[in-house]
Amino acid sequence: MSPKPMARPGGRSARVQEAVHAAVRDLEAEQGRAKLTVPAIAARAGVTPSTIYRRWGDLHELLSDVAVERLRPEEPPSDHGALRADLTAWARHFLDEMASPPGRAYVRDALLGDPDGSNAGQCSAYAAGQVETILARALDRGETAPPVEKVMDLVVAPMMYRILFRPDPLTAEYADHLVETALTAPDESA
Amino acid sequence: MSPKPMARPGGRSARVQEAVHAAVRDLEAEQGRAKLTVPAIAARAGVTPSTIYRRWGDLHELLSDVAVERLRPEEPPSDHGALRADLTAWARHFLDEMASPPGRAYVRDALLGDPDGSNAGQCSAYAAGQVETILARALDRGETAPPVEKVMDLVVAPMMYRILFRPDPLTAEYADHLVETALTAPDESA
DNA sequence: GCCGGAACGCAATGATGTTGCTTTAAGGTG
DNA sequence: CACCTTAAAGCAACATCATTGCGTTCCGGC
Fold it and tell me: Which A residues between 35 and 94 have a beta carbon under 7 A from any strand C atom?
């Protein structure tokens, strides 16, 4: 079911997977999405199309797979010494990444080829993990911090909604505004 | 660019469009999404595939088109005599519709075949329109009501985010909670 | 160093996507 | 009301892509 069963993590399987992922990245960068087709990717990766179909099912699942890997945060959120500063910086960064044309494309891909929703869930988990880190750091400092769910609802969700459903441009001020809302909202215990 | 140019609204064009849309609905109901292919739809609609490709570009754009039409609200939100009741009822209804398997499928389709984001924008506009109606009604009654944007950020966005990115089931209580948040949040003027 | 099984390559087949050319009919005009 | 223009649909050929059976290779374990 999972696109990357990797029943055999070592050796050829791993090489093929890496080659295919690299081929997707390269082709996309060089020729754009329109040229992203399974045979083209296979040729570029030095692999036969049937291999790709067998391992990933179809193009969308493969793209979803690659997109999720690209959406994985590479570093923990930067530490600015205070909750508000940390959250603001992270929200701005997140918005910047996700609202950019390539970012939007990755998010869409991740959602697209995802029969069971596990890839989309992974994306959400990445964001939640980053937020979690920030909040834990705040608690360590002795600050009061809202629960993760609240930040997801009040900061992450609105940004994602606008990215996906609205063509309008998004600004850093909007991210700031959302963080402000999350930090000043009443702490219901629900 | 738009999937439905309709430069000639009357006569054959309209009949073809309706026939194709109907074919999509029927085939989906009868044989499931897997069997939804352009040639099959064309055959069912009594049309040649090239007609569909020329008018809609590809299968995804056609499905997106159909999905948006299905997501259009058919009635104004029901009137319960008070803002809180109206918003709660609408949010529950919205969540119910969108979180159901067919609802999720429509939303995904709408997002999917949508190069310029106009279809997704339409979906958002539908929801905003419904909210707008509710808020205007409240103002007419003399109630104080939050701006539309606030309701979109605090109620609609979190629901959509969870629908799209999280596999977990969603409850009516969650919708209630979001409405509560939106109505009790401090009224910043920003 | 041998064995079992999973993954890959190859190649053929069927289905789908795409396009030039022709034909029909909608909508405007005299 | 007949004619003319032109968008849209039909037809048909072609290119490309998706799918599958079978043989081969190579990983992983004994």
Answer: 46-51, 54-55
